[in-house]
Specification:
Largest sheet of chain B: 10 strands, mixed
Shape of chain A: elongated
CATH superfamily of chain A: Glutaredoxin
Radius of gyration of chain A: 22 Å
InterPro entries (chain A): SCO1/SenC, Thioredoxin-like_sf, Thioredoxin_domain
Helix content of chain B: under 10%
Number of strands of chain B: 10
Protein name (chain B): Copper chaperone PCu(A)C
Largest interface: A-B, 30 and 31 residues
CATH architecture of chain A: 3-Layer(aba) Sandwich
Organism (chain B): Thermus brevis
Signal peptide (chain B): 1-18
Structural class of chain B: mainly beta
Order of helices and strands of chain B: HEEEEEEEEEE
Keywords (chain B): Signal
Number of helices of chain A: 6
Oligomer: heterodimer
Number of strands of chain A: 10
Strand content of chain B: over 45%
Strand content of chain A: 25-35%
Distance between the termini of chain A: 54 Å
Amino acid sequence: MKGKLLLPVLLVLALVGVAYLLLPKGPHAFYGTRLLNPKPVDFTLEGPQGPVQLSQLKDKLVLIFFGFVHCPDVCPTTMLALKRAYEKLSPKEQERVQVIFISVDPERDTPQISDQYAKGFHPSFLGLTGSPETIQEVARTFGVYYQKTQYRGPGEYLVDHTATTFVVKEGNLVLLFSPDKVEETEKVVGDLRALL
Amino acid sequence: MRWLFLLLGSVALAQAVATPGWVRLVPPVVKDTAAYLTLENRGKLPLRLVGAETDVAERVSFHQDHREHRGGQVVLGMRPLPYLDIPPGGRVEFRPGKYHLMLEGLKRPLKAGEKVALVLRFQDGSRLKVILPVEMR
């Protein structure tokens, strides 16, 4: 009796296994915060070689982080998380992803300094900034808050800033990573691949 | 009696115990970086960390991360601390997102893998030397 049961049981198990593999994969469950209504965004900021317009990068998935260079704890933590995620992507995927660091401290950070900072994390990253007015406008577009604190004198202050990573696809803001979520490299990579 | 004083003396010296973390390797364009470690108070008295020095930076300050929510998003910053208290049996973790020792005004760009010596100063006059590796993390 025992021997007669084994074969059908195995067969059923095998069929269940095959059925599971054949199941259509549902839509990717995003780990980051998906925007229900993707928001069209654009800006022109200063890069190391002149102006850079976001819409020029329409064929790429653009990851944007706002920060400032004199920031040794918060900003590198996210920039290093973005580096880890970026380096997990294949070279083909990397070609279609652009990480941008935008300095909200244009008084101290020139486009060159911002870019050297970004490239210090990965040579393909891009650092941008702009006039205080332009930065204010871009920050408003993305809902970024920034404020000088602990002012000790010109050039000696700290900056509080929104530490979200913004993901832009084809000119639309589609996904956000909080500074805590961006640390989960595998899940961030999963989200980026689903968008690529 | 003398051995008792010696013993007490060594206990007092061993009050602060540091578990090394790392000094963050930042792009050379940045003149400030952060050092991370865990400081434990194994003594019976409260400890107050009042200062720190290193040869590689102009000065060392203590910062605590500051976090608030605005428009549904996390706004981060940091606030300097004049000193840091560690209760007996307590510990303070200097790590990303919590506390950091800011090495301000780096005298030269640091290199990955090099060791940086940091001397921590306490209010009771004791000092603690910590050696931290420079790492990009």
